[in-house]
Known about the structure:
By secondary structure, the protein is mainly β. It has one helix at 8-26, and strands at residues 36-38, 49-60, 63-72, 77-82, 96-98, 104-111, 116-122, 128-133, 146-149, 161-167, 171-177, 182-189, 202-206, 214-221, 227-235, 238-246, 254-257, 279-283, 293-294, 300-305, 320-326.
Amino acid sequence: MRLPGFNCSLLSGSAALLATVAIVEAACPLPSSYRWTSTGALATPKSGWASIKDFSHVPYNGQHLVYASTHNTGTSYGSMNFGLFSDWNSMASASQNTMNAGTVAPTIFFFAPKNIWVLTYQWGATAFSYKTSSDPTNANGWSAAQPLFSGTISGSGTGPIDQTVIGDGSNMYLFFAGDNGKIYRASMPIGNFPGNFGSAATVVLSDSTNNLFEAVQVYTLSGLNQYLMIVESIGANGRYFRSYTATSLGGSWTPQATSEGNPFAGKANSGATWTNDISHGDLIRSNADQTFTVDPCNLQLLYQGHSPSYSGSYDLIPYRPGILTHA
């Protein structure tokens, strides 16, 4: 309805201006220095498990869906998912569902071009493997394993470890670590995915072992022509994350917050009082698809931590989930 004497072109121009302002406000640059607040431990492993760790998270029908590695009280790794929960305070009461076939260090996402859920992981028949599903909430509803990467690396005691996958409009990229001061990348045309990245990978970052250790994650930053990489490092005061940025997934990476005193996330800035370690986890994504998009205006990190009083073997570290929220 048109109001007498009302200038509709003014309304149109104002709406356009408001839309422009909204777009500008949505594109938050990354801070040069990060400060977080932290929850306490959000869940306790069910009976028989010493730890829940290596978290991967997607939003699913307005709720949280989390996959993770487990370690029992003996010598075995495994994997699990949590039943859907609506808020982080409900994580403690969500079901913990054992996977019949372990998918250690899992990464879950929805591959939109082929309308299929994908779960990638390590320690299968090849260095990295993947499975697919139409129902990611069913921990044991995944397909048979297929090879994701069949290569090897030199100068590493673990071999390829802690993979993540991300796509742009043309390609899918595999990034992984080696517990050896290097981060590796492989790629394929997006039309060939899901599939095998082959046996060759390029080193995209190189530093000391402690500075580039493991748990690499890569994200698209919403509203910015920029990608964010975080890598777990070993510091004097525990595990922490360094960050790097790039304008292309196939390009070079620039250090962003890369010291223990001024990290992406660590004891120095986490606000956590129950753990010194801010270790292997996943930024909370805006959507579940292969772009791994996060909102730089609302950064949250699902991480693994543990009581500083623990002094036993690495495999039995009592890791628990926690959430950091950028202040």
